Task: structure prediction
Amino acid sequence: MESISIDMLHFDVMDGIFVNNITYGIPILEQVRKCTDMVLDVHLMITDPSRYVKRFAEAGADIISFHIESEKDIKGTIDMIRSAGAKPAIAVKPLTPIETVYPYLEDVYMILVMTVEPGFGGQSFIPETMSKVEAVRRMISEKDLDIRVQVDGGINAETAKTAASAGADVLVSGSYLFKAESMEEAAGKLRKA
Ligand code: ZN
Result:
């Protein structure tokens, strides 16, 4: 990924409670940090993220996204991520209204719009989520803010075009890149989108 200039490594943390799957956590992130200078973009799909954000930042996360559905104190968690030295981002599941993130737009580095139900890789992109990308991008432009809009789930050469034209500028891709014969060529197609 480094050799083909992938912009960041997206690290999906699942706790088996917020989502029905378990992946990995802080010790693995520490080991990954030792191996690379890539931007580490940590996506927390866990309950009570505020309890752990400081430790993920210390383990080497550059960006930390947490789910708006998983935390009561949104502003407090954003502040905690910043004071731990990472860039805060809020994630929303496909069925969560995008308006829920509007009160926090001034405070975050990025908004993550899930384009599949979080929990498993290899799922199909949900096209209905694009109206959320469009709406949040419009709101960001109206407020003249400098915020990235990330999409995560089912991103391939085709859906990347759809997402980019809706206003997404950070594309997370797993299966499409890792199953490609040439990751470089596949990544090039995402960039072109
Ligand atoms: Zn993710």
